[in-house]
Batch of 2 targets.
Target 1
Amino acid sequence: MNAEQTLVALSDRSPHVAPEELIAGLVPPPQFHDVSFASYRTDDSEPSQAQARNKLEEFAASSTSKGFLGKLFSKGKDGPKGVYLDGGYGVGKTHLLASAWHANEKPATFGTFVEYTNLVGALGFIRARDDLSQMKLVCVDEFELDDPGDTVLMSRLMRELTDAGVKIIATSNTLPGSLGEGRFAAQDFIREIQALADQFDIYRIEGKDYRHRGLSEPAEPVPAENLDAATSELTGTVARDDFPTLLRHLSTVHPSRYGRMVDGLDAAVWEDVTTIDNEGVALRFVALVDRLYDRNVKIINSGQALNKVFTEESLAGGYRKKYMRCLSRLTALSSQ
């Protein structure tokens, strides 16, 4: 270890977050602390990017300066109450979402779909709804349909928030009307999803994944015998863990606390990465990578290449989009 490095282990961290801290913690992650609509770099060959930015900027401006009376008289009106950004991985949806949060009047919240479901689990639906109803804007990143119960829960929460006059902006990789297609047959789920889709103006963002910067795969793993030397070259706070031990530890920490667990890290070193053959373990790992990506934590590893961390069955299954997003983020973090 060099003098400019502090070495820790994630498997030694078991943070606790008080329920009342959860609302206060719903802000853009460090990677997006200073972004703006002006700093969003559009691809001239993809006009949908500039169009989506302009529409979202207009929406944020129209939401600003609406006081109590504006919210009161907006209740019950027909028409969309929010904006939905659809697009592939790495086209800048989170950048735009965070830009809207920064541009909007406060109080406002920013979090992933999973963070909001965790919030409801920690506070209970009524308190979470009442607290979020005080917001002028609620930003929901990476809307997911991994669990039908969570989908119904979020659909109800978002409808009740829009009824209270709260504006909502959401991002996802799938259009709202298609979220349940081919996955859940129950008609009540379809009705819930359709009701949610009707709340939003939908804008599609086309483009290539900017995170890869010409790369299609994560960086090559470091040979085990060279990992000590590679680790010693890192500066700042570095978390070094045996990969199987880290995966076991994740099962002991609620995903709502993963952000707190990785706070302050500059790099993560994983020894002996192996392919994850258990779906529950894989999904916890995805949640960890999301929080590392939020904080732009560099990753190096030995063992299996990071693009082999999920099985072929997982990549072909119902969580494919989530795993593919994770691989995109692993590529970005390991290629710094």
Target 2
Amino acid sequence: MTPAKVVLVGADGCKAGWIAVLREPGSTPRNPDAAPSVDVFPTFAALLAAIPDDAVVAVDMPIGLPEFSQKGGRGPEAQVRPLLGARQSSVFSIPSRAALYADTGDFTTTEAWYAAHLRASDVARTTSDPPRGVSIQAFGIFSKIREIDALLIARPELRGRVFESHPEVAFCRLNGDRAMLLPKKIKGSVNPAGMAERKALLCRHGYDMDFLDQPPPRGAAADDFLDAAAMMLIAGRIVGGKAKPFPNPPLADGFGIPVAIWA
């Protein structure tokens, strides 16, 4: 199987659900007749339903959950952080599966949201060594982690098609194993210089700047779009045998789901 024969998909979570950059078989990003496309899907299941059964997806979301959380993370996190220099804070440790499923309600008020965060942190502390709670940022993506986790438990055949990656690890690997010099965000706001650095790198790997400069679809942010574009390149590296899993070989969680960051 080669990248020219399968649909390649890069995905990232966003406010509206999931943003995905897709490349059709046989196309290249610079081919105007078969340029990549970008779309937003309300759920990860909807994204999968919209692509062929043999499409390969690289997604910026943790895959494979620990039953007990150790210092430094599941294993992949500790391996990729040293590659990233000043960007390593973008890689956070994943709490236990019990913490991720501690509260799966639909929170309609801010008070309910923070109460659920406290409950998840309480469970996380009892299932980690040293005891550690959950950051509010990590809690914000719990529902998306659960989406993928539930699909990979129910549909084991997806485990050979849906791969975890990480944008800053992807950019580093695409940049000849040199981490990006500039942050993508500063104090929660997009950093134009950091975005420009990453766009230039993506263009060196075949993207057209006009494609990257377009406004992201409604419900997705500009950095979500850029991350999904990087994930699509990693999907191609996976199919082409150029990607490396961290760790190598991948670990497995209690359900047999592979645990590795690919890039």
